[in-house]
Design a protein that fits this description.
heterodimer, A: 264 residues, 2 domains, B: 315 residues, Rossmann fold, five-stranded parallel sheet, binds flavin-adenine dinucleotide
């Protein structure tokens, strides 16, 4: 391991799923104009990185985002939580970049900008929730990966992590360099203070292009194209059950459910 | 493209069988071959079950068994290199998604996860998947082959189609390169409930004031022959219920005949888990709670008054 622990965190500026709206006539969601915000789990990723750093003198946390100019907001959020450095990978055609392109750019950036011991990502982005970028990055770099981390301890030459699966929790050990993905359960990200926001707004962001990272444009050509995003209509009856007393309400609901044929 | 190969793999043999059936149904031509991968450590009857599900071929990888995603990916990679598939289907479990990314990254292949439907079209592979935290369905076109596609359980695979002869191959992988080492496996607390299979579910959210009050929810569930479900905070934050009760984007997806949501606000990440329910009842003291827009029957009121009355009525 390097003398000083190098921790990288990937933060995505994704679509705000609570604000994205579908066109009434077509049911299609317009993604290009949808409001965006920092992906939820990425704040947990930054929080975890910052906590580890605070236990390791000299450790540095670098936050990186791939996207357009608006992705600076995700980097500001990361610095407000406590990241030391901020890197934006961007190009005029950033909107074409798919999951593969994002992972390739993260890999190239980590190589070009000094490498990492730990690279922490969200286990899925709030909008797309593919869960691919972390494992893709590890696959491309040929290093260890541990997904779905719920508890993390850093040792001299690697990490011990609790990995959350559907029916079990595994304790897993890996040596540096290692890629980790985390979910909401790992910690509670600190709320930015007035001072930390001020610091974040002043933080200089290092802006790099794919060319700066020696990645050719062809290597980023999309291989997965989103053709449509639509909100499925599930019609609901929306019948209000009212009554003079709770017992009357209950009796009316019972009648309705019996008519539906869903009671035992 | 007459004799394309589709490879299928899941660490859950039942899901691998589904993938084989799905691949048989989606295969573009009679010449297509559906092959199933069996990795070290798989159950002894896995190959036979996959043949019964309709696999034309079995690719058995031999070597040391390891749960490490890099080792799993290496095993699959050996088979991909040997069989040159146009499509690799993987079960979209947590492990499956991790391996999908790892394999796709190592071989620089396009990938998609959480897929619920799949079509092999001349201009690409089209997949349906959830997007925007389950609020929307996205159709994605994968323009380059081969591709790695992780398919969700229950994606409507038809019944098995018999095969006349089976091509069995063995791929020895000398040194599986495990990059992580597992020292302990702990089954999750609870974990026995299979809420996906429930016909009726009574789900409780943060409207519940304290753990002891679960008794009235359990009483209602009993009266309705239902299972108890919960929102994320009750499992992940207060821990009043174990993870197997948790419904939503990061919990379980359910499709019961009757879904009764009590003290649940109806956040998008919760709705995705219950949207396919047949009949939805919501009880909430806030008339503007978003859950009401997703309900067939709406009761505005305090759960502490409504639920005991429901217990009496349904008992
Ligand atoms: C509805 C919708 C549909 C989309 N369809 C496609 C599609 O068809 N194909 C496709 O490949 N992409 C698609 N995208 C774009 C996608 O959101 C990308 O930005 C990119 O593909 C990243 O992958 P992900 O979000 O799937 O990552 P995931 O693998 O779910 O993200 C995991 C983690 O990777 C990191 N990460 C992800 N993206 C970035 C980033 N840009 N910068 C820094 N860190 C990041 C974060 O830590 C994140 O928590 C779509 C987006 C939306 C909202
Ligand atoms: C990435 C991500 C993934 C997530 N995954 C999930 C998931 O899988 N599942 C999930 O559920 N959530 C998930 N969440 C969390 C989700 O956003 C909500 O925070 C959560 O669903 C809220 O739970 P709740 O409805 O129980 O609580 P609240 O939102 O606090 O709602 C409580 C409701 O109870 C009502 N109430 C209060 N007192 C009473 C009373 N006495 N009688 C009647 N009604 C009362 C209130 O009016 C309110 O509507 C996720 C969030 C994120 C960011």
């Amino acid at each position: 391991m390097a003398e000083k622990l190098r921790i990288w965190v990937a933060v995505k500026h994704g679509v705000d799923v609570n604000l994205a709206r579908a066109d009434r006539a077509t049911g299609l969601v317009k993604l290009d104009s949808a409001p965006r915000r920092t992906s939820d789990f990425d704040k947990n990723a930054v929080e975890e990185a910052v906590r580890l750093r605070d236990k390791r003198p000299g450790a540095v946390v670098t936050a990186i985002s791939v996207g357009g100019p608006a992705a600076r907001e995700a980097l500001r959020d990361a610095v407000a939580i406590g990241a030391d450095e901020a890197v934006l990978v961007t190009a005029p055609n950033f909107a074409e970049w798919d999951t593969r392109a994002v992972a390739r750019l993260l890999a190239a950036a980590s190589r070009a900008l000094g490498g990492f011991d730990l690279f922490v990502l969200g286990e899925g982005s709030t909008d797309h929730f593919a869960g691919l970028v972390g494992p893709r990055l590890a696959g491309e770099l040929g290093c260890a990966d541990i997904a779905y981390v719920r508890r993390l301890t850093v040792e001299a030459d690697g990490v011990v992590a609790e990995k959350d699966l559907e029916k079990e929790v595994e304790t897993v050990r890996a040596r540096f360099p290692v890629v980790l993905t985390v979910g909401q359960e790992i910690n509670t990200p600190r709320l930015p203070t007035f001072m930390s926001n001020l610091k974040a707004s002043k933080k200089e962001v290092r802006v790099v292009s794919p060319a700066d990272l020696s990645v050719a444009a062809e290597a980023l050509a999309p291989v997965v194209v989103t053709e449509r995003v639509a909100v499925p209509e599930v019609p609901r009856k929306q019948v209000t059950i009212s009554g003079a007393s709770p017992d009357e309400l209950a009796a009316r609901l019972k009648d309705a459910l019996r008519a539906e044929g869903v009671l035992p | 493209m007459s004799d394309e190969v589709v490879l299928c793999y899941s660490e859950e043999t039942g899901l691998a069988e589904e993938l084989v059936r799905l691949a048989r149904a989606a295969a573009p031509s009679d010449g297509s071959r559906v092959r199933a991968v069996v990795l070290p450590g798989a159950p002894a009857d896995a190959a036979d079950r996959l043949v019964a599900a309709g696999a034309h071929g079995i690719d058995a990888v031999t070597g040391a068994a390891s749960p490490d995603p890099a080792a799993t990916s290496d095993g699959l990679r050996a088979v991909v290199v040997a069989t040159a598939p146009t499509l690799v289907l993987i079960g979209s479990t947590k492990r499956g998604r991790e391996v999908t990314g790892r394999l796709a990254g190592a071989l620089d292949l396009p990938a998609a996860t959480g897929v619920t439907a799949l079509r092999l079209d001349p201009d690409g592979i089209r997949v349906d998947r959830e997007a925007l935290s389950g609020n929307a369905v996205a159709v994605e076109r994968i323009v380059r082959r081969p591709a790695v596609v992780a398919v969700m359980a229950g994606s409507g695979a038809p019944t098995a189609t018999a095969v006349t002869s089976v091509d069995r191959r063995t791929h020895p992988v000398a040194a599986f390169e495990a990059k992580t080492e597992r020292s302990e496996v702990r089954p999750k607390a609870g974990g026995q409930l299979e809420i996906e299979k429930a016909d009726r579910i009574v789900t409780i959210g943060r409207g519940l004031k304290k753990k002891e009050d679960l008794a009235i929810i359990e009483a209602l569930a009993k009266a309705l022959s239902a299972e108890v479900g919960c929102t994320r905070p009750l499992a992940a934050e207060s821990g009043w219920l174990s993870d197997d009760h948790w419904i939503g984007l990061t919990g379980h997806r359910v499709r019961p005949k009757l879904y009764v949501a009590i003290g649940v606000s109806g956040a998008v990440q919760h709705l995705v888990g219950m949207r396919s329910s047949k009949v939805v009842v919501a009880v909430n003291k806030d008339p503007n709670a978003p859950i009401f827009a997703q309900a067939d029957y709406r009761i505005t009121g305090d759960l502490y008054q409504v639920v005991p009355a429901l217990v009496k009525a349904f008992a």
